[in-house]
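In the previous chapter we treated chains in isolation. Here, by contrast, the input contains two separate entities that must be folded as one system, with a combined length of 488 residues.
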Amino acid sequence: MKLTRDDLNVRFRIFERAVLEDQRAYYKREIDRNQRASRQINRTRAFFAFLAGVASLLAALVGGFIASQQGQGACALAELSSIASANLDQAQSAEIDAALSRGGNDAEESTMSCNGLRIFTSILMIVAVGAPALGAAFTTLADLYQWERLASIYETAQKSLAVSDALSPLEEEPDQVYHASLNAFVEGTLSVMRDETSQWGQLVKMPDALQEYIDRARDAAEKDDEEGAGG
Amino acid sequence: MSATPAQPPPGASTTPPVQPISQRNNQMRHASQGWIWWQQRPKREFPNEPDPQFKLVPDDLIERMTTEFNLDPGAVARMKKDIDYLDHELLKYFRETDHAAKKYQNGFRLYNVRILMLATGATLIGTLQAISLAFSPSLLLVLGALETIVALYTVYVVNTRSTEASLDSWLKNRRQSEQLRREFFRYLLYLPPYIEGELEYERKRKLSSRAASIYADQFPEEPSILESGNPTMPGAVPPSTAYSPNNGTATSAGGAG
C-alpha cells in the first residue's frame, strides 16, 4: 500500500499517544515509585541500625547498674534466688526464697527491682541483635527488587525518549521529509524501549544472600539427616 | 492537512494525565501512596488467564484521537484494518507472553520473599540462642530444635519450588512480549522489514511469520531504517530484499517462505 500524507499523519498521532506518551507516563510513574520505595527501604534500614545502637547502649548502661547493685549485695540475692529456682527442686527453692525474704521488705524490693532490670536487659539484648537481622532482611529485599537501579534506568530511558521526540515530524515538512522524520522518530522511540528492556533484564537475579542461606540450610538439613541415621 | 488539534472549549479542565496502556492494571497491585515496597509484595494467587479484551491500541483511544486531531476518516479506517489484522495475528501472542511474564515475575518474587522470611527467622533464632546462653541455658535446646525445623522447611520450600518461580521463564516471556509490542508498531508504521509499496499479502505474511518466530523463542532481527533500504530515507539502499523467516533478516531470496 502506498501511504498518503493522511495515512502518515494518523499513524503518527496514534504512535505518539499509544507509545511515546504511554512510555513517558510509564517511566514517570516507575521513577517515582522506585525512588520512593528505595527511600522508604533506606529509612527502614537506618531505623533498625539506630534501634540496635540504642538498645546496645541501654543494655550496657543497665548491665552496669546491675553490676553496681550486685556489688552492694541486693542483686546478688536476686541472683541467688534465680539460681536456686533454676537448679533445685521446688521445696528447696521455696525454702531459700523464704530465707531470703526474712531479710526484710527492703531486700525483697531490691530483688524485684533486680529481676525487672534483668528482664529489661534481656529484651534490650534481643533488640540489639534482632534489629540488625531485620535491617539485613530489608537490604536483601532491596537487592531483590533493585528499586534504586531501576529508577536510574528509567530516568535514562525517559531522557532518551526526549531525544526521539525531537525527531517527530512537523506539519510544514514536505511529504518525503515528513515520512523520513516519522520513521526516525518511530525507530528512535522503539530503540529506547528495547535498550531499557535489555538493561532491566540484566539487573534481575536471585540475591546472593538468599542463595547462601539456602546452601547453609541444605548443609544443616543433610547434617541433621546424617545424625538421625547415625543415632 | 487535517492534523491541527481541535481547540478545547473555553473553561475546559486541563488534559488528565496519560495512564500507561497495560494488562498490569488488572493483574498487579498498583498504588502510588503509602508503603510502596509493601504494595509491591507478590500475590499468593495470580490470575491464570490473560485479559482477553486487552488491546495495545484501544478503540476508544482511536476515536478520541480522531476527534481531537480531526483525522481523515479514510486513513483511520485503513489503519483500523491493519490493527484488526494485528489483533488477530499478533496480539494473542502478546497477551499470553505478557501475562506469563507477570505471572513468573510474581512467582519468582514470592519464592524469594519466602526464603527471605525463613532466612530472617533463622537469623533471629540464632541470635536468641546466643543470648539464651547467658540468661536461660534451658532454652538453648528448644531454640536449636526450632532452628533445625526452619532449615528443614527451607529445604522443603526449595525442593518444591514451583515452575512459576522460574527467573529464566520470566525474562524470556518479558523479552518476547516486548519484542511483539515493538513488532506491532513496526508493522503499523511501515518500519523495516515492512516496506511501503510491497504487496499487502506479503506484508501480512511477513508479520505472521515474524510474530510466530518471536513466540517460538526465535527472535528475528529488527532492521534499522538506515540499513533496510527504506525508500523514504535519503541515501538509502533500494529495497531489493525480502524477509526470510529462518533468521529474521533480509535476504535476497524472494517470498516469505
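The two ends of chain A are 81 Å apart (CA to CA). The CA atoms of residues 19 and 190 of chain A lie 9 Å apart. Compare these points with the single-chain example from earlier in the chapter.
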